[in-house]
Amino acid sequence: MAQRPTIKTIAKETGLSTATVSKALNASPQVRPRTRDKVLQAAKELGYELNISGVQLRTGKTYQIAMVTVIASPDDDEWAGVGYTQLISGISRAIAHTPYRVVQYQVASFDESFEVIKRIVQNKKADGIIISGTRVNDPRISFMQEKEFPFVTYGTSDASAPHAYVDTDNRRIVTICVDRLLSKGHRRIAMINAREELNYTQNRVEAYTASLSRAGLSFDPSLIAYGRLTPAFGREQLFEMSMFEEPPTAYICANEATAMGVLSGFQVRGMEHGRDAVVIATDDLNVSQYFSPPITTCYLPISKPSETLGQFMLDLIGGEDPKNLQKLFVPDLIERGADTCNLEKQQAQS
C-alpha cells in the first residue's frame, strides 16, 4: 500500500525545505506566490490533503472567514440585483489555494448582523470577517477595530481609523452618468437610490449635487428616491415622478433591478424610452443588455470586487496594514443608445 504523502514528500518533490512547504500550505504571506503555486501543484499531483484539525490545534486558527450578510425575507420574491452567492463565489476563488473557507452568516437585519459579529469575535469562531451594507458611521466597524479583529468591508464608511475595504467608486459612477445626461440636454434627472443610511447612497447624492452645481442647476430633493432596490420600487418611483408638473427626462438607477421596474412603468404609462425619458443603470451583472430596449449601463463584473475582498482578507490575516488594503473600482460605461429624448418642452420652460 502506498504511503500517504506528507510535507516531507512535497519538499522532496519540489526541492524546497519542509518549513517553506508548510508555510505555503498554510497560506503564509512570507511565501512568494510563485513558490506557493509550485507547492500547491505538487500537493495536488501527489494527492496530499492538509489535516485541518491538526493545523487548527497547532495554530489556534479556525481557517474560516465569516461572511455576514443582511438578506431579504425568504417570502420576498422581488429580485434585488446581485446575489450574495455570486459574491461568495468570487471570494472563494481568491482563497482556493489556502486552507481557508468562507462561512456565510445570513441575517434579517442590521442589528442582527451586529449581534452575530459580536459572537464571532468574542467566541473566535472565525479568523476574519467580511461585511457589506456599510453605513456612514457603522458601529460594527468601530467594534471590530476596538477588538483588533481582522475584517474587510464591501463598501466604504466614515470611520475615523482606516480599515480594509473594497467598493465601486460610487462618486465617480454618478459623475459619469450625470455629466453624460447633462451633455445630452437633460436638466431634470432623477436618481433611484438605495436606503438613505447606507454610505454609498450618500456618496452618490454628493456626486449628483456636485455635477448639477457645476452645470449651474439647483438641487431638487424630489428627484431622489430612497429604498430597497427592487423592480417594484423602481416602478413605483416612475409612477410618482412621471406625474410631476416637470417630470424627469432621465432616470439613474442604482441597479438593474430598479431600472427594469422603471422600464416596466414606462409601458404602463404609455411612455417610450428615448422619446419621453431615458434610463441609465449601474450594476455588477450587465443584465440590462437583454432589456428591451437595451440601456446604457455602468458595468463592473462582480468577480473583480469579490476576488479582491478574498485577497485583502488573506493579506489582513497575514499582518498587512489595513490602510494598504483599500480599493475603489471604476466601472466601464457601456453606451447602448443616444440617451436623448424630446426635450423641446423642457428647454422652452427653462
Automatic annotation (TrEMBL):
Regions annotated as coiled coil: none
Keyword Cell membrane: no
Keywords from the named record: DNA-binding, Transcription, Transcription regulation
Residue ranges annotated for the HTH lacI-type domain, each copy included: 5-59
Pfam families: LacI, Peripla_BP_3
Record has Hydrolase as a keyword: no
One GO MF term attached to the UniProt entry: DNA-binding transcription factor activity
InterPro entries attached to this UniProt entry: HTH_LacI, LacI/GalR-like_sensor, Lambda_DNA-bd_dom_sf, Peripla_BP_I
Origin superkingdom: Bacteria
Listed name of the protein: Transcriptional regulator, LacI family
Organism from which the protein derives: Pseudovibrio denitrificans
